[in-house]
């Protein structure tokens, strides 16, 4: 089963991606994780990408395509790609790669939330500067203010999580995703999921869809 999953900042796509890979034993390819990994290495490319993120801008397509497709080459099938593609150019690069390698997408899941919800979720997010543990000022605060429960590191707000940056990121996301959604809708694989509500509530909207696709694919292989 090959899946794309996307959604505005704070939609929970990464959280649900991890639930999906655990249930269906898929390889997880996260554009965000790949990019942050490069930034954490402190490379020249990482520093350049960090500048784009801190301003709420998209990283150039050629850079993202190279990073994500390099990871996909080591996987081939049974994957979920989180947060990619985000532009028409990225769609073209991905579709060319899939066509050249005979790979078929089963579903493109769009977990949608409003701009107000996005800003509330993301601007309240805090991370540990030492171990990367994630907290939220309203939903999951640390036991001791500004101190990580796990390692005792300092809790910080990432520059790209500030309200004004989140608002810009949301607007950029919506603008860029319109033609992408249109494309995958025409391909017959696009499904929008209401992302409002708790994690388990949203998961119960996603799970039946994937159970159906998984069982359908399983039956197809049994009859080959």
From TrEMBL:
Q: Which residues are ATP-binding?
A: 10-15, 125, 134-135, 197
Question: What does the entry note on its domains?
Answer: Consists of three domains, a large central CORE domain and two small peripheral domains, NMPbind and LID, which undergo movements during catalysis. The LID domain closes over the site of phosphoryl transfer upon ATP binding. Assembling and dissambling the active center during each catalytic cycle provides an effective means to prevent ATP hydrolysis. Some bacteria have evolved a zinc-coordinating structure that stabilizes the LID domain.
Residue numbers binding Zn(2+):
128, 131, 148, 151
In residue numbers, the region (LID) covers 124-161
Sequence positions that bind AMP: 31, 36, 57-59, 83-86, 90, 158, 169
Main subcellular localization, coarse class?
Answer: cytoplasm
Q: Which named protein is this?
A: Adenylate kinase
> Residue limits of the Adenylate kinase active site lid domain?
125-160
Q: Span of the secretion signal? A: none
Gene Ontology MF term list: AMP kinase activity; ATP binding; zinc ion binding
* Catalytic activity reported: AMP + ATP = 2 ADP
In terms of InterPro entries, this protein maps to: Adenyl_kin_sub, Adenylat/UMP-CMP_kin, Adenylat_kinase_CS, Adenylate_kinase_lid-dom, P-loop_NTPase
What is the organism field in this record?
Thermococcus barophilus (strain DSM 11836 / MP)
One GO cellular component this record assigns the protein to is: cytoplasm
Q: Name one GO biological process term.
A: AMP salvage
Q: Please name the taxonomic classification of the source.
A: Archaea, Methanobacteriati, Methanobacteriota, Thermococci, Thermococcales
Q: Which of UniProt's keywords are assigned here?
A: ATP-binding, Cytoplasm, Kinase, Metal-binding, Nucleotide biosynthesis, Nucleotide-binding, Transferase, Zinc
How it assembles, according to the record, is: Monomer.
Family designation:
Belongs to the adenylate kinase family.
| Stretch list, region NMP | 30-59
Subcellular location per UniProt equals: Cytoplasm
What HAMAP family would the database entry show?
A: Adenylate_kinase_Adk
Gene responsible for this protein: adk
User: Tell me, what does this protein do in biology?
Assistant: Catalyzes the reversible transfer of the terminal phosphate group between ATP and AMP. Plays an important role in cellular energy homeostasis and in adenine nucleotide metabolism.
